[in-house]
Predict the structure.
Amino acid sequence: MSALTRRALVPYLAALPVVGSLLRPSHAEAATRSEIDRDVAAALATLRSMENARPLFAQAQAVLIFPRILSGGFIIGGQYGEGALLRGDRTQGYYNIAGASFGLQAGAQVAGLAMFFMTEAALAALMNVDGWEIGTGPSVVALDHGVQANVTATTLREPVYAISFSQQGLMAALALNGTKITHINPDA
């Protein structure tokens, strides 16, 4: 292997431990149910205070909330977070979100993500499979802050809406492409 080729691989090889740690946290790092519930409750309060989210809450069958998704990478990136599915005020299950990406990216961020399931069919697509890959089931519309401002009860026509919140860090956006959501059973 020539020196030029090895140099070209350095950014990819350097990113592999970061991606691996984001996508496969050890059992010791996994959150407990009470930790997830606490973080989801705080995120829910934040979301309910967002005026633009009110129409989504009013019509959603259920809301999947990931209060803290860690994302990072340099060329190769990854993201990981844990959350809960709420139907009304009741927790219906716990889920993780994980994804990998490749492309022009550099940085790290922490952000929350709320997915509003507007139909029973969309909710069934999440609950009836072992690992739902975004893009293979019902369409997910990611609403950025500009679009959120125009959301009303009469404009909501898609099966799932996703909004990010509480973003901190140096990456431009939370990517949903190549993301998988899986049911988990955290320790009590």
In short: The chain has one domain: 3-184. Residues 8-28, 146-154 have pLDDT under 50 and may be disordered. The two ends are 50 Å apart (CA to CA).
